[in-house]
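Hey, can you fold this one?
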Amino acid sequence: MTGGHWTLDDIPWDKFDPGKADPELVKIVKAASMVEYNGADYATYLCNVFPDDAEFQAAADAWALEEIQHGEALARWAKLADDSFNFDESFGRFRDGYKIAVDSESSIRGSRSGELVARCIVEVGTSSYYASIGATTQEPVLREVCRRIAADELRHYRLFYTFLRRYLERENIGKWKRLAVALGRIGESEDDELAYAFYAANENPATPYDRKTYGRAYMKRAMACYREPQVRRAVAMIFKAAGLNPQGRTADLAARAAFGFIRWRGRKLAAA
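Sure. Predicted structure:
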């Protein structure tokens, strides 16, 4: 086992149906495989931010192993869908072109609680994303891979939320600060990481990288996957991480607005 409660052997790879593998989904699955596989770097960063918390460090290391397994599963599916996909070569390009500051000794979010809020946002985002891909695809193996990954990411959210509650007792950052961190992390979904992953996975190395071009290429395909139930759940869990009522009228309005924005942005990107 690479981590987690399932292995690659649990996936019914022999049921892969090439006729149901959407080429547009293949492109974002390739990119996602590299982001997930890069989990070890984030664990290194988190262990540096929490150097005196052995329990959290152990949890972060176990989490990273599960993220790496997600990358392996997605890469294997992508290879079935496109036998020209060379994961090792593409991942090498991704690592060369995109790096995070793993040696930072303090959180870029301003506090440990802020860091944990950001981790919660990432996990709920990825859970809703893979659940959305699973709901979109007709290919049975990808649907199963996404089901398992989405469940893992939901469990990861709960893990980081448990540590968040613990650290809030010491740092006691307010709801508005937590909300600001959450919104800031959501905004980072359009930074270089996903754009460069899409470029490294799908573009000829001779073609120069352009963040705007490949960020749009990724987001256009990703946003087409989202459905309202996944968005609603994601917004509720974001509210919870921010210390707000996840079931109230404000959360409901935010969910409607978020889904409306995703549909509008998706149409705009598709038209462009």
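The radius of gyration is 18 Å. Let me know if you want another pass with a different chain boundary.
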